[in-house]
């Protein structure tokens, strides 16, 4: 479980989940230990153990998009935490255009050999310019369609850090051959919305290692022009 410290008060612990090694993360304010879980795709017991080990109180569940490996454990984690805390733990995100994917989670999970995942609905659909709170730390929401129509990115401006789901990876970009994927939309999302945030912005992708927008601008084969 690699830990990183993007900013003095912001802490992040990655918990790889599902056979697709999806980067679920527990992000929290180190002063208050209040935080959120991003993309709980499955392996809910493992996520629950990480939350306990970190001593974090989870106030919300954030979803970057509706694919099963990112959202397939959200329903179970919500129920588990609400029972434990005795208060609501809302699921926030993705954009409404991914609702069809959240509804299909059981079927798509089974097709990839991960049975038993549950469909889930968002308590709050997100759009460009919305904000989500992680403890007292605000993340800006950026709608980045292309990998899926409702993909969103969570950006913490002061910490220079983003959680990007499957929009962008170290050395690659999200696949666009899945339902309602669109390559031109994805490239536009990355080049018009993400890269302008700054070369110094570090990001956690949905799979694989972290990187920075600057490193991807310079060397990502899908973004470098001939
Ligand atoms: Zn995906
Ligand atoms: Zn994924």
From TrEMBL:
Gene Ontology MF: a single term: hydrolase activity
The keyword rRNA-binding appears for this protein: no
Obligatory cofactor(s): Zn(2+)
Pfam families, alphabetized: Lactamase_B (PF00753)
The name this protein goes by in its record: MBL fold metallo-hydrolase
Keywords, comma-separated and alphabetical: Hydrolase, Metal-binding, Zinc
Keyword flag Methyltransferase: no
Superkingdom of the organism of origin: Bacteria
Residue ranges of coiled coil: none
Residues covered by the Metallo-beta-lactamase domain: 21-207
InterPro entries in UniProt: MBL_Glyoxalase_II, Metallo-B-lactamas, RibonucZ/Hydroxyglut_hydro
